[in-house]
Design brief:
Helix 2 packs across helix 3 and helix 3 runs antiparallel to helix 4. This protein has four helices and two strands. A two-stranded antiparallel sheet has the order 1-2. Strand 1 and strand 2 form a beta hairpin. It has one domain. The chain is an all-alpha fold.
Length: 202
């Protein structure tokens, strides 16, 4: 256990929740699109997986917008001990790339559905199209979406690897800032048989 664990300045609980919920949604979004092939095209199960992929992707977009608002209102706690300037610059660049990915991928999906003239579902609602139907444009956007999606694996992996590097090698609180504070169990001492507690027998 690190000696600074108790005094680590953490993100607020809402920011933590949004962060980990975003990760869970990303895992689901990738899993749905990667494993949809286990069902034949045109089947209800295949179509349902695509629909859920689209709806959860749009959920990531909305959640990321909310996360950016939270960052504007509640600045991130400082890392202790402070990393060198080059690491701070690298971290800022990585965060910008991640936010661009989290916003850009769902927007691309929205544009694809719009260009293909398909509905944009969102849990019983319909989002408005962003483009007029244009199948050629839809196919081009789909290729970009797939390419950026593959890059996303690398971005997410690098982000996770950086957090672990800071935790285990730099020994700072980068990772602990995004983890809930652990409760320290209260130890109750047992009195020896026959012993009196303070105040007893007086």
């Amino acid at each position: 256990m690190h000696g600074t664990d108790i005094t680590t300045a953490r993100y607020n609980r809402l920011s933590m929740g949004v962060h980990w919920l975003t990760l869970a949604l990303l895992v689901a979004v990738y899993a749905l699109i990667e494993f949809r092939g286990i069902f034949p095209r045109g089947t209800a199960a295949h179509d349902a997986m695509k629909t859920w992929h689209e709806m959860l992707g749009l959920s990531v977009l909305l959640l990321t917008c909310g996360r950016l608002l939270l960052r504007a209102v509640l600045p991130a706690p400082r890392i202790t001990p402070a990393p060198p300037a080059w690491q701070r610059l690298l971290a800022k660049t990585m965060h910008l790339a991640l936010y661009a990915f989290l916003l850009g991928m769902p927007l691309l999906g929205w544009l694809i559905l719009s260009a293909k003239g398909k509905p944009i579902p969102f849990f019983g609602l319909q989002f408005p199209p962003l483009l007029s139907p244009d199948k050629a444009m839809g196919h081009r956007l789909e290729e970009i979406h797939e390419f950026v999606g593959n890059l996303g694996y690398g971005l997410i992996g690098l982000h996770a690897a950086a957090a672990l590097f800071h935790h285990y090698f730099m020994r700072d609180d980068t990772l602990r800032r995004m983890l809930p504070r652990r409760r320290v169990p209260v130890r109750v001492s047992r009195a020896a048989p026959g012993a009196t507690m303070p105040g007893e027998g007086q």
